[in-house]
Design goal:
Structural class: mainly alpha
Radius of gyration: 21 Å
Order of helices and strands: HHHHHH
Number of domains: 2
Number of helices: 6
Shape: flat
Largest sheet: none
Strand content: under 5%
Number of strands: 0
Distance between the termini: 63 Å
Helix content: 55-70%
């Protein structure tokens, strides 16, 4: 999505909620988060928010991200991957059918775990990219006579 489309998205949202600000700063901030999201999916998520059960919640960029992520995780292949992942993390019983959508609380826990793991991996990668020699651990872990 480009920055003009983000502005259009905020304008649509402001039609539902008069407290949503459509200005340059808000548009640029939302663009930083939504630049890789498809405009039509984001627009659908925006409208769905305002006519759905969460309509009383203050609309935020996270609502779009959650909706787009949820939509992407409902294909048969994604459901099977999620079930396998949840079983491996012992979030569900091993007898759970591989084609059955996980309960909402398990899906949220799985999303949180994956996000935490991605962030940790990114931090480790950034640490590995530091210039210079690795830190000398000294005598830690070595046998002392």
């Amino acid at each position: 999505m480009n920055i003009v489309q983000v502005g259009q998205l905020l304008t649509i949202a402001s039609g539902f909620d008069r407290f949503i600000t459509v200005d340059r700063i808000t548009t640029e901030a939302w663009f930083l988060v939504l630049k890789d999201v498809d405009f039509e999916e984001a627009k659908d998520a925006t409208v769905a928010h305002f006519i759905g059960p969460r309509a009383k919640e203050t609309f935020a960029v996270r609502h779009i991200l959650e909706a787009v992520t949820d939509k992407a995780r409902l294909s048969p292949a994604a459901i099977e991957v999620d079930v396998r992942s949840a079983k491996a993390r012992l979030l569900i019983d091993k007898s759970w059918p591989s084609n059955k959508v996980l309960p909402e609380n398990i899906r949220e826990a799985l999303f949180t775990l994956r996000d935490t793991e991605k962030r940790a991996a990114a931090q480790r990668f950034a640490f590995d990219e530091l210039e210079g020699d690795p830190i000398d651990p000294g005598d830690i872990g070595k046998d002392v006579p």
